[in-house]
Give the backbone structure.
Amino acid sequence: MKLSGILFTAALLLGAIAPAGAQTFPDHPVRIVVPQPPGGGFDLSARVIADKLPQFLGQPVIVENKPGAGTLVGTEFAARAAPDGYTLLLGGTSNMALNIGLYPKLAYDPVKDFTSVGLIVTWPFMLVTRKDLPQKSLAEIIDFARKNPDKLTYASGGRGTGQHIAVAVMAYLAGVKMTHVPYSGAQAAYQDILGGRVDMFFDNASTALPQVRAGSVPALAVSSAKRYPVMPDLPSVMETGLAALDMETWFGLFAPAGTPAPVVAKLRDAVEKARALPEVVELFGKTGGSVNALDAAATAAFVKSEAERWGKLVREAGVAAD
């Protein structure tokens, strides 16, 4: 057989195999890699959706936390995973948009190395402080910081996380300086906020709200341009006029680039059905989260625009991961 004939036959065989694999997908458990420790917005989003996906995929969905270096370790792991649909990434503002501005050379490209499976939920960040902080409003905090550079401390769940950037960019826009204290996740940060060892924390509203409702920490502002529906009396940073901050944290599922289109389509269909379940909408709604129901094209455009916007702003603010 001539070489051209052999190649043609091989192409036909590969073409026959690929659809068959997609038709049987999934035939074993799917895992969602979460690039943060348990207890924060990344983890909550992953576990809520993972709990509902099996009824639409017919296989267990396992959440695997892979924290480290902010969100780099888990995200890089997912980017290198086999593009077969069995390893997904829980991507969010931090690892899919902010990291572009934080790191001169990323080991992954959030736009080119991943295919969006579907966004899940969006929350604002909520600024909380230790209970005995003398400054009782955002205006007082900014005024104190302006007169006392680097005296106020703020926690984050790690360098380069949304919690880090929320305060760093707010401080940049307000023209003040504060000292960053990174922790290994939100739970560790709250230990020192509650213990009075760090001054403030701009946390995902989903995990900040229970602390506020319990009376453990006071809340001063939210990062979204508009007020937070769950706490309508809480001002947004933007409306105070102190800093033009418009930031929300969003989360979604992403597959490694090259994942077969039929597999991605099955995953997207499952995500769309899972996030539309009344109990999912209600659960996220109780914490002020908004289910994010963009279609595939709109999701890809949104992630690209977020990466461009935040990459530019983070670089302008001079924020570094190290």
Summary: The mean pLDDT is 90. Residues 3-24 form the longest helix (22 residues).
